[in-house]
Amino acid sequence: MTVPPTTGRVAVVTGAGSGIGRAVARQMLADGYRVALAGRREQQLLETADGHPDALAVPCDVTVPDDVERLFASVLRRWGRVDVLFNNAGIFGPAASVDEITLADWDATVAVNLTGSVLCAGAAVRAMKAQSPQGGRIINNGSISAHSPRPRTVAYAVTKHAMTGLTKSIELDGRGFGITCGQIDIGNTATEIMDTIGVGSGALQADGSRRVEPMFPVEDAARAVLMMAGMPPSASVGSVVITAAGMPFIGRG
């Protein structure tokens, strides 16, 4: 199996201003990709880019259709193509069970995690169809919550389960155009969101207790994304699960 060169390939990374998105964008730039960095806060995108000549910072709210269209138009205007989308932007949402969550909190979580992912995937697929038969590759950032939710995370868990359906639908519908789609489900990589749910100080477990859980470096998760992105067109990695060693995932609770 011959792995294609990455130099000159064009990638779009959403949620690139922090966390997994920032780590993936930097790894891609180091590996020779030209990378469009998308996120709501321009200053954070510029910090991710750190002056790299092959980085393009595009402020974008993925829940706003016009922002998403402008993002991909900017990429096509600058580089003429889209080879990879890392569909990463997301929020954890409120700590609430189904009987407690407000409609506003539910809508806000769905808007970013699901609708935003659909909007970005749609724009990427349109660009990739125009490149057919060369096509392109989409990598959706799911979560181990797509397999085994945490307590009191109904909005996040539902959107991440839905992401799996989006991944499979894109993979199926893209076949005739050389477009592949895979999903990476990450557990307990060391990012700001882990502070939100208390992984380092005591995360809520299924039995009601709290437990300090292990974490792993975000750069290791980024390398897994890079592996998926760098596969040749003849192969598609449909699903990757990567977790901190020893975290309560298998047999959680």
User: What structural class should be given to the helix and strand makeup?
Assistant: alpha/beta
Largest sheet: 7 strands, parallel
Mass-distribution shape:
globular
| Topology-level CATH name | Rossmann fold
**What count of domains describes the coordinates?**
1
- Total helices: the number is 7
Find the CATH superfamily. Answer: NAD(P)-binding Rossmann-like Domain
Task: State the separation between the terminal residues, measured CA to CA.
Answer: 41 Å
What kind of oligomer do you see? Answer: single chain
Provide the succession of SSEs: EHEHEHEHEHEHEEHE
- What is the strand arrangement across the widest sheet? 3-2-1-4-5-6-9
Rounded to the nearest angstrom, the radius of gyration is: 18 Å
Reading off the top of the CATH hierarchy, the class is best stated as Alpha Beta
- Tell me what the CATH architecture is: 3-Layer(aba) Sandwich
According to DSSP, the number of beta strands is 9
Share of residues in helices = 25-40%
| Beta-strand fraction estimate | 15-25%
| Mean pLDDT across residues | 92
Low-confidence stretches: none
Keywords: Oxidoreductase
GO molecular function: oxidoreductase activity
Protein name: Putative oxidoreductase
Family: Belongs to the short-chain dehydrogenases/reductases (SDR) family.
Architecture blueprint of SSEs:
Blueprint: E1 10-14, H1 19-30, E2 34-39, H2 42-49, E3 55-59, H3 65-79, E4 84-87, H4 103-129, E5 136-141, H5 154-173, E6 179-187, H6 192-196, E7 203-204, E8 210-211, H7 218-229, E9 239-243
Parallel strand pairs: 1-2, 1-4, 2-3, 4-5, 5-6, 6-9
Antiparallel strand pairs: 7-8
